[in-house]
């Protein structure tokens, strides 16, 4: 078995992760503008899994996914990745720049820092690295969910979670 972080989809120390530390790891490659990603993320946030979000920003979807990924990276630098993502997913019709600034203010973020950080080289590098990792893992569209080295492009449901938990128990 490869050491953690060496194979595509492996959990990394710098990942955006939430959920129980002992839950089965689930890596979701997503795009905050994608309705299927929104559904998958909401479902997995409520499941007993260790959820990791990585950006899968595909050029074919236009410039907005990259702008939102940059905003999420900027929010992460102020320890607000998950609250920011949750709010984006709760109101997908409000994802333009003024909406992002308002959301940053509502979450108590330094908006000037947020604006600088979302467009800087480190955010771009992180988004590009997530994309490369996702493509290497077999992601061909969003959402792409990687569990135990396999990739699934569907939206998980209760049966999927139960199968995951049962597999982990064996």
TrEMBL record:
From which domain of life does this come?
Bacteria
| Family annotation (InterPro entries) | DSBA-like_thioredoxin_dom (IPR001853), Thioredoxin-like_sf (IPR036249)
What residue stretches are annotated with the DSBA-like thioredoxin domain? 69-150
Q: What is this protein called?
A: Na+/H+ antiporter NhaA type
One GO molecular function term?
oxidoreductase activity
